[in-house]
Amino acid sequence: MQFIHNFDPAQFLDSVASLVAAFILGALIGAERQYRQRTAGLRTTVLVAVGAAAFVDLAVRIAGSVEAVRVISYVVSGIGFLGAGVIMKEGMNVRGLNTAATLWCSAAVGACAGTDMLAEAALLTVFVIAGNTLLRPLVNFINRIPISHEQAEATYEVHVIADEAALGETRDRLVERLAAAKYPVGDVEVIEREDDIVELVATLVSTSVVGKELDAVTRSLAVLPGVRHASWEASTTD
């Protein structure tokens, strides 16, 4: 039988050690994801780690370390497709990025185990778990720090509601006064409203502003003939 011919007890035990290590380390990473009820939990993380270890171990045994490097590159790209499946967009929010990154790291743990770098696989596991647990209080602290418009990078828009008859003049004054305030306009969109009312939306080139300066611009626009309202807003969501 071909199995008897190919079977090598030493290599078999080496594969067992690699797969067991990938299973245990993947389970440690996945337990944290499961506790937080993430899309990819304990079983998914374990399967990713074990699968990566199995593919890399197989490549090492059949063709050596050179081909194992090629298989690792395929594992990295393949996990990218799997990670994309756990990323969800809900309205303006995106969820699952951290879980996708965890799956990617789990594949790295499995690849280390598959190449018999068990100590490195264990060290990487420590870093992954630390990233998902110890950094969480720091993230929450940073998120609670108020951020000013001067520090934020975002897309800024100036909205002016005016009579349609004053459209041309209002658009010229809008661009002119923003340029005078050192906020060049990238685009001006005209939206038709009811009863001969239009809304001009000017998107600024700048990714950060001084709020008081834009307040002054909108106040000066609001008193123009034919202008009913002027305001500005920022959007930090791509």
Automatic annotation (TrEMBL):
Family note: Belongs to the MgtC/SapB family.
Location relative to the cell: Cell inner membrane; Cell membrane
Record function comment: Virulence factor required for growth in low Mg(2+) medium and for intramacrophage survival. May be involved in regulating membrane potential by activating Na(+)/K(+)-ATPase.
Organism: Kaistia geumhonensis
InterPro entries: MgtC-like_C, MgtC/SapB/SrpB/YhiD_fam, MgtC_SapB_SrpB_YhiD_N
Keyword Cell inner membrane: yes
Location of the MgtC-like C-terminal domain: 156-232
Keywords assigned: Cell inner membrane, Cell membrane, Membrane, Transmembrane, Transmembrane helix
Record-annotated membrane-spanning stretches: 12-30, 42-62, 68-88
Keyword DNA damage: no
Membrane topology: Multi-pass membrane protein
Sequence ranges assigned to domain MgtC/SapB/SrpB/YhiD N-terminal in this UniProt record: 19-140
UniProt main location, coarse: membrane
Protein's recorded name: Protein MgtC
